[in-house]
Amino acid sequence: MTQSLQTPSSAGSGQMPSQTLIPQLSLQSMFWRPKFAKDPVWSVHLPVAFWLIEAQRPQRVVELGTQEGTSWFAFCQALERLNPYAECLGFTAGPPDAALVEHTDAQYQELARVRQASQADALEQLEEGSVDLLHVAPGVAKPIAKEWAHWQARLSARGVVLISQAGPGQPGEALYRQVREGRAHFLFEQSQGLAIVAVGAQQYESLERLLGFQPGQPGMRLVQQVFQRLGLACCATPPSGRPAAQAGDRDDAEAISTARRQAESARRAAELARKEAERVRCQADSARHDAERRIASLEQDKAHLEATLQVRDQEQETLRASHRRLEEERATRFDETAKLTELLQAAEQAQATAQARIEELEAARRQAQEEGERHARDHTALQQRHQVLKKQLEDQARELEQQAQQLESLEAARQKTAEQQAQQQDRLDAAERAKVALQGENATLHRQQQDRFDELAELTRMLEEKERRLAELNEKPKRLVDAFTTLGRPSKARGSRRASKEDLRLVKQSGFFDEGWYVNRYPDVEQSGMNGLEHFVKFGGQEGRSPGPAFDSQWYLLEYPDVAQANLNPLVHYLRFGSNEDRLPTPEAWQGEKHGS
Q1: Ordered DSSP codes for 340-407
Q2: For position 258, what pLDDT does the model report?
Q3: What are the angstrom distances between the C-alpha of 140 and each of 65, 183, 223, 410, 565?
């Protein structure tokens, strides 16, 4: 069971040409020959009954007021061919016709039963939401209208009501008006009228196309004419092994001849519809084969990219090992700080070089984004063509839709992987050059004044932050570029390190900062020579370190990139502005607010 993906507009459906409209609604069942056609009035609607069973695919069909059997055996015949595991129940107020029961047991014992029951008993035997198709047979519309609320509760999420004698002035017209209010509906005006009303919200596409027509549209008249001609063919041709019940009711041979000519015309129209459907099916098969070839090619590209990424991961691990060795060497040379000023100048030059490189990468990213938008437009055109094919053949449409989604996902993965690969290589090269320069400069360091120790610790933390962001490159490349761009603005970075006493007081009194939790979580804080509160306000918050379990700094910076771009401490921003702007401190709080709303 699927909910319809496309619903035709009233104007669009009604103005479709016949060579397009008929194939879209055409189903094989509408051309069947009935095995039982006793009532000449209801026999005209037999193609509608067959078509509705195939279009709606019900699991349970209920007929209220089963009498002579024309509609009843039409449902049984259709279910036997299309879904023999479905159930067909008929209810009569009085004792059911013995011949009808005998024929039902003989032909459809496994799926159909006729029961005598009052309306209250019938409602009690049916669970709520268990009926997919409810047929109100001739003569029972008035009592059903009084208990419509109870019958409506028995219909499923894709429930449909079929009302006989629903034409103007007929006994079922009042029930039809009551049920159709605010719902999609269609009235076959021939032979006292037969109305279809979609009560459930989930309907298959073929049925939604039919129900999308509005009274008076040319397309609606064409559909009625086609089904009327097919119905007259059922009246004119005796069913297999049984004389036609309505043949004796014809006044003369001329009426029979007219009906046969109309049936022949309907058969020719049906043959044209079948040919058109076959042509559309061939087009769909061709498109599906092209999609399969494209998917195979994309799978090969994906395997190649995965192998390349694995090599890059190994290179990253080597880079981390080099960085650890650098840290160990630098830890033993704190006494060589005489040339710290020269080192800072070199670092600023490296930052300027990195900023220039970032600008180049940003230009490359914009170019890649434009290329992605062009691919997206091409893909959108393919999707539009795919939607046209889906309207024509429902079964093939589902397969093509799944393939289109796979193509879109693979194309997005390919573009994202290519961008990540290029950006990762550039950043690894830049980081390697920076590390080689730092190793050479560290070899020439000597002892300098003790009051420069804090500046060296600050530089160490800046290098650690760069390495951490390189490690996150595979998951968040775009945010990495934004954060690295922010890091490249030295004037703002140095300004963010000067925490005011007001910021320290605000964080301390907020209840979010836990000194013991922070120091245990980040043991390198003790090596910096600062207490946990001062370290968090000056550096830790901007590095994505959380002050305690109640505030997630890294999530806050990623969720609100304007804070990261401004290089602000996330907790200070939240306390001063974010809480008043309904920003959240943790992803759990976002989930709670989402479920609460």
Answers
A1: HHHHHHHHHHHHHHHHHHHHHHHHHHHHHHHHHHHHHHHHHHHHHHHHHHHHH-HHHHHHHHHHHHHH
A2: 63
A3: 6, 22, 27, 57, 72
The answer to the question of residue 371 being in a domain is yes
pLDDT digits (tens, 9 = 90+) for 417-459: 778 878 878 887 877 787 776 666 665 555 555 655 555 556 5
The reply to whether 476 falls in a domain is no
Mean pLDDT of 453-477: 59
pLDDT in the model for residue 358:
85
Residues 33 and 138 in one domain: yes
**pTM to 2 decimals?**
0.43
| Domain assignment of residue 463, given as a range | 280-468
Tell me: do 572 and 496 sit in the same domain.
yes
CATH code of the domain covering residue 81: 3.40.50.150
Q: Which of 234, 217, 201, 224 is nearest to 25 (CA)?
A: 224
What the block records as the tokens of 319 is 């880079």
Q: How many domains does the chain have?
A: 3
Residue 566's identity, in one-letter code, is A
pLDDT in tens, 310-323: 888 888 888 888 87
Q: Rounded to whole angstroms, how far apart are CA atoms 275 and 268? A: 11
* Of residues 157, 210, 160, the one with CA closest to residue 187: 210
